[in-house]
């Protein structure tokens, strides 16, 4: 049976409208992040998202962790449909535009204690290690793959700025959770429609209102990547004077940056 919406139509109904609305609000709202600095940060995140997610996503599709309903995709590149690659771009934009509405910053030097960097790196590595252990069992394979894939990124982000992220944790948490809950709902609807199907063999069987916990974990960690990445990027630019190479590049740039 063909699902009522194709994957592309899912984007048109559930992903593009909030992006357009949030982008319009961020551009018009006084005090919101907009312009060259936050958008360049988003651009970097988009490139990293596509490069880092593509092999992981295709591997899981090839294994059979999930597949797509009959007639729901336009075409496939490698093992993933083109709509999946589009999602790699659209989800970070959606989350970033929400973040832009609640600028998240604090006055803190880049020179955070080495012990904080160690704890941050160790935390990310520990998450990856748990993932490595979980992929050994079919029922925890998908969850393990998510944690193993997430660990290195979290280790890098937390090693660089765990102290800063803790300082701005309240707004950062809101910026993560609101888009995540929305995407949980959209994902649950898509699964219910049969746009994509999650394997019972490679999942634990635990759900949140019908949404596999693995899918919930995926959207949570990916939004953590996006929010933390942009927040740390903006922090780096704000404290550019502490890094001579960055400060020099800004001084030579024909574009005026507000780094105060």
TrEMBL record:
Mind naming one GO cellular-component term on file for this protein? membrane
Keywords (alphabetical) are: Carotenoid biosynthesis, Isomerase, Membrane, Transmembrane, Transmembrane helix
Presence of keyword Isomerase = yes
- Subcellular location, record wording: Membrane
* Pathway assigned in UniProt: Carotenoid biosynthesis
Query: Please, which domain of life does this record's source organism belong to?
Result: Archaea
User: What InterPro entries does the record tag this protein with?
Assistant: Lycopene_cyclase_dom
Q: How does it sit in the membrane?
A: Multi-pass membrane protein
A biological process term (GO) from this entry = carotenoid biosynthetic process
Q: What is its main location?
A: membrane
Q: Does this UniProt record's set of keywords contain Cell membrane? A: no
Q: Where is the Lycopene cyclase domain?
A: 34-98, 141-225
Record GO terms (molecular function): intramolecular lyase activity; lycopene beta cyclase activity
Query: Transmembrane segments in this chain: where?
Result: 6-26, 38-56, 85-106, 118-135, 141-166, 173-196, 216-236
What is this protein identified as? Lycopene cyclase
Record organism: Halalkaliarchaeum desulfuricum
């Amino acid at each position: 049976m063909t699902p009522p919406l194709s994957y592309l139509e899912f984007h048109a109904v559930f992903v593009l409208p909030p992006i357009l609305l949030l982008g319009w609000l961020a551009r018009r709202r006084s005090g919101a992040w907009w312009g060259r600095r936050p958008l360049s940060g988003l651009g970097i995140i988009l490139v990293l998202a596509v490069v880092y997610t593509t092999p992981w996503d295709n591997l899981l599709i090839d294994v059979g962790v999930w597949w797509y309903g009959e007639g729901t995709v336009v075409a496939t590149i490698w093992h993933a449909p083109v709509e999946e690659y589009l999602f790699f771009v659209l989800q970070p934009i959606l989350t970033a535009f929400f973040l832009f509405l609640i600028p998240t910053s604090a006055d803190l030097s880049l020179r955070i204690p080495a012990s904080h960097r160690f704890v941050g790196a160790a935390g990310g590595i520990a998450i990856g290690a748990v993932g490595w252990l979980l992929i050994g069992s079919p029922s925890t394979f998908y969850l393990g793959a998510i944690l193993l894939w997430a660990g290195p990124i979290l280790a890098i982000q937390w090693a660089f700025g765990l102290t800063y992220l803790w300082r701005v944790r309240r707004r950062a948490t809101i910026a993560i959770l609101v888009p995540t809950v929305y995407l949980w709902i959209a994902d649950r609807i898509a699964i219910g429609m049969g746009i994509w199907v999650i394997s019972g063999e490679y999942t634990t069987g635990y759900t949140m209102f019908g949404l596999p916990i693995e899918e919930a974990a995926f959207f949570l960690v990916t939004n953590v990547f996006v929010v933390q990445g942009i927040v740390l990027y903006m922090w780096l630019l704000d404290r550019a004077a502490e890094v001579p190479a960055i400060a020099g590049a800004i001084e030579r740039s024909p574009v005026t940056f507000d780094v105060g």
